[in-house]
Amino acid sequence: MDIHKIETLLRKTRQQLKWKVIYGRSPDTLIPVIKCDPGHKKHEIVFPESYDSSVANLDMLHELTHALLAETVSPAFAGGQIRFRTERGGQVWRNYVTVPVQVATDWFVDGWFMNKSPGLAKEYLGIRIGMALAPFVKSRKLPSGNLDSDRCGLALLTAQSEKYGIGSYIDDIDDDGLKTAVRLFLSVDETKPTHDALLDLKNDLVAVSTPDLLVGYDPPTHTWFLGERQGSSWSRI
To answer: How much is the pTM?
Structure first.
């Protein structure tokens, strides 16, 4: 892996950012995360307290790309507050929505990276894809449950592997929901991130396993909310 190229891309990405970036560590997170605060024009990137990933710099670049898209396209590309009207709404979000919402954003973030530095991006994604898909390819067993958690992440990586010529695993999938999610990713142009494209992909992924749910976003307050479809209308929960 070309360290010089990584450092150059990190520097150029930081130079494009206009908002303040705060870095930190936390024992409460297992993976790097970013929170965007459009009101105060700042980003907070938090890494796990103990983190020795061999691709730490590329993980940092990934989070900075969230920040860049948040500034130049829509704050929806980097976190936000989540508000519910009922306790059930929070439970439904955690169980069915969290991961689909996250990986929809990553489709565009990794697409930006691939456009800027195809060689590095392909190497980075190859490592992630190899780690995640190797057990699946070996056992041919999918995680059970709804299209959330590991299964939705698997759909993202399968689509990226297909898209960027890293490996084709679609024929190994014997699961209609997962295969549908992979095709949803591949139907979206990851090189053209827009607010509407992001929101549509999030809702399409959520609908694969929970078609009665609707994810909404309020730009002025940078707040995500959850709705439940009721016939031709819907109500917040």
So the answer is: 0.90
